[in-house]
Amino acid sequence: MSKPTSSALAGILESAGREILMPAFLQQNKASTDKDDGSVVTETDLACQQHVRQKLAAAWPDIAFLGEEMEAAEQHACLQQGGRLWCLDPLDGTTNFVTSFPGFALSLALIEDGSPVLACIVDPVRNETFCAQSGHGAQLNGSALHARPATDMKSSVGFVDFKRLDATHRLQMTTPGHYRSQRNIGSCALEWAWLAAGRGQFIIHGGEKIWDFSAGGLIALEAGCTISDFDGKALFDNIRPVSSIAAAASDALHQNLLQLLNY
Q1: Which CATH number fits domain 153-261: 3.40.50.10860, 3.40.190.80, 3.40.30.10, 3.40.1160.10?
Q2: What is the pLDDT confidence band of residue 114, given thresholds at 50, 70 and 90?
Q3: Angstrom distance (rounded) from CA 159 to CA 102
Q4: pLDDT grade for 32, boundaries at 50, 70 and 90
Q5: pTM: predicted TM-score of the whole model, two decimal places
Q6: How far is CA 234 from CA 99, 115, 153, in A?
Q7: What CATH number has the domain spanning 6-144?
């Protein structure tokens, strides 16, 4: 049995994006339903998860599988067993997808003993593939990927999800003068990938789930970013099912970000 590689993961996700996501995205009417947590799911999410899961199982049958669209009890059992597991978001940015906004991605990580060791995010709209292996750097379409820090917080542009911030943090992050500007793409995976690519300098999110941050967090980390929760605790020391996110393109910027959050 071959060892999982970033190029192998890229091939699986790129084919799913090309053959499943993009044809469905180009349809005028995309039916969706609301899940218990308020997020949206479509038949495309389910079809893409099944497609990727089958490809992974055929190549590496000994690795467990965790997907966003699995039942909650099945997700919990998978996380409890430890060992090696795939962590997949088959369509990150489903609300964008159903409203024909071109901002969504596939996100996949291989987690070993609580930490991601291999990651891939595919943006099928822009034909961009972001990959990383722990200790071996990050790549965009095969070229080395490096974060691009701003000189200071006030010149930084950040990805901020205000909807998932508590009232105190929301007030702090909307106070003028702390940073240059903010964006909310509606896809955690793309925000992580774009942070790693230098298209922003920080991320603030009140609570991402494991399939939101496991692949993107590793890619950002390998591109030179510093990442933690709001308390400064490392994301990948005993990885949690849900975590607040404070990520920045440099150590210095990350310290400024934590000071802003915990003033």
Answers
A1: 3.40.190.80
A2: confident
A3: 17
A4: low
A5: 0.93
A6: 35, 11, 21
A7: 3.30.540.10
